[in-house]
Design a protein that fits this description.
This protein is α+β, with helices and mostly antiparallel strands and 301 residues long. 28% of the residues lie in helices and 26% in strands. Strands 8, 9, 12, 13, 14, 15 and 16 form a 7-stranded antiparallel sheet that branches. It has a 5-stranded antiparallel sheet with strand order 1-2-3-7-6. It has a two-stranded antiparallel sheet with strand order 4-5. Helix 1 runs parallel beside helix 6 and helix 3 packs across helix 4. It is globular and about 55 Å long.
Length: 301
């Protein structure tokens, strides 16, 4: 798998701790990343797909993702505790794309809510009639709406490995029924709140991935990472929705589609790294992220 491009600046008072696919993580100087009660999360312009970090990045993506996440954290604050402490009390060099956050011990589970059938969920349904252990009605297809939405967890793989869809029962066996039931309840509550808000703005929230952790100060189950961004969610324009086909998206699906097209010349099943993104794909992707930001937040970017 291709390695992330490290572009972590030196920040006074903070030690760089981890380079992720699209983020850099810092801890207060002299503290240990595994136990720090505060962290600094810096979103870069990197973009990833199929477990590869791609080149080049998408201009302004870090600022866009940070702004969208902040919007949603505010919308969800009464539903679930979140990890953000401040978006302004951060080093000037990374202001606008950095969040000062509570340190969390992350739950090793991707918490996915699906309100429409597409992607890997559709593949699982076609293979066995169920998604995440939920047996669904026959006759569903691409972009079929699911009411109510369903919770379909996946494993949280180490960087470079693949996440794996598992059933809710398997998640309970691994992490305990009480915790997984909490995660399911919170994930679906977040999804339904977000689905309603997005619909008011002409956007269908097809699915989303959330991550939770336990606060290192009091153990509270807390919403972390990013939330409801074009990197972690599928956004479709409502006016272009038609069951049976995939609507145009306002997320990184555009990049995935190009990578798997004949135009890229890349075989995602090979060991070869993906090709460099053409300038047109970079610009079209940026435009989709900007549109998602502006339609969701109501603010001009």
């Amino acid at each position: 798998m291709s390695a992330p491009l490290t572009c972590a600046p030196e920040l006074p008072g903070w030690d760089h701790a981890v380079t992720g696919k699209v983020r850099e993580l810092y801890v207060p100087a002299g503290q240990d990343a595994a136990s720090a009660t505060e962290v600094l999360v810096v979103a870069t312009d990197r973009i990833s797909a199929f477990d590869h970090t791609l080149q080049p990045g998408i201009p302004d993506k870090g600022r866009l993702l940070t702004g969208i996440s902040l919007f949603w954290f505010e919308q969800l604050a009464d539903l679930v505790p979140h990890h953000v402490l401040s978006a302004t009390d951060v080093p000037a060099a990374v202001r606008g794309r950095a969040l000062r956050c509570r340190g969390l011990s992350m739950v090793p589970l991707e918490c996915i809510a699906r309100g429409y059938l597409t992607g890997s969920g559709l593949a699982d349904y076609r293979a066995g009639g169920a998604v995440g252990g939920h047996v669904l009605p026959t006759g569903l297809g691409e972009a079929s709406r699911l009411d109510p939405a369903i919770f379909t967890p996946s494993t949280k793989a180490e960087q470079g490995d693949h996440d794996e869809n598992i059933t809710v029962a398997e998640a309970r066996d691994r992490l305990g029924a009480e915790l997984v039931d909490q995660l399911e309840e919170l994930t679906l509550a977040v999804y339904e709140r977000a689905r309603t808000i997005a619909a008011e703005r002409g956007i269908l929230l097809a699915d989303t991935k959330l991550e939770f952790g336990h606060s290192r100060t009091d153990g509270t189950l807390t919403l972390g990472d990013e939330v409801l961004t074009p990197d972690s969610s599928r956004f479709w324009s409502a006016d272009q929705y038609e069951q049976g086909r995939t609507p145009p998206s306002l997320d990184k699906q555009y990049v995935r589609d190009w990578l798997t097209s004949a135009a890229s010349g890349w075989d995602k099943g090979s060991a070869a790294a993906p090709p460099e993104l053409p300038a047109e794909v970079v610009e079209q992707t940026r435009q989709r992220y900007v549109e998602a930001y502006e339609r969701l937040t109501g603010q001009e970017f």
